[in-house]
Amino acid sequence: METIVISLGVILLAVLGIVVSNLIVIPLFGENFRNSLPILYILLFASAFSAINSFMENYFFVENKTKSLLPISVTKLISFITFSLLLLPYYSINGIAYASLISSLLVTGMIIYSVRK
Question: Which residues of 3-19 are buried (b: 16+ CB within 10 A; e: fewer)?
C-alpha cells in the first residue's frame, strides 16, 4: 500500500511538473522552446517511472533477491537502446524520449510482476 501511495505521489509530481513547465519554460526561455515542451512532458513521466522503479528495487534488497536486479537493469538498458534505434529515424529526438518512457514502463512491469510473484 505504501508503494502505491508513493507511486501515485510521484506521478502527481510529474503532472505538476507539466503544469509548472507550461508556466515557466516559454516566459523564461522564449518561444523557441515551445516545440521542446512535448519532449519535456514525456521525459517527466519517464523519470517518474524510473523513480518508482528505484524505490521498488529496495524490495529486492529486503527480500534478499538481489540476483533479480541485474536482469532488470540489463533489460532497461537493452530496451532503451533498441527502442531508441527503432524510433530515432522516424521520430527524431521525440523517439529518444519515447524510448526512455517505454523502457521505464517495461521495467516497472517487470518489477511489479517479480514482486507479486
Answer: eeeebeebbeebeebee
Chain centroid offset of residue 115 CA:
19
Distance CA 13, CA 22 (A): 14
pLDDT per residue over 40-94, tens digit each?
A: 999 999 999 999 998 888 888 888 888 888 999 999 999 999 999 999 999 999 9
C-alpha cell at position 35: 516545440
Interatomic CA distance for residues 18 and 25, integer angstroms: 10
Residues 6+ apart with CB under 8 A from 104: 46, 47, 49, 50, 53, 76
Say how far apart CA 66 and CA 78 lie, in whole Å: 19
Distance of CA 74 to the CA centre of its chain: 15
Q: What angle do CA 97, 98, 104 make, to 5 degrees?
A: 95
Cell of 103: 523502457
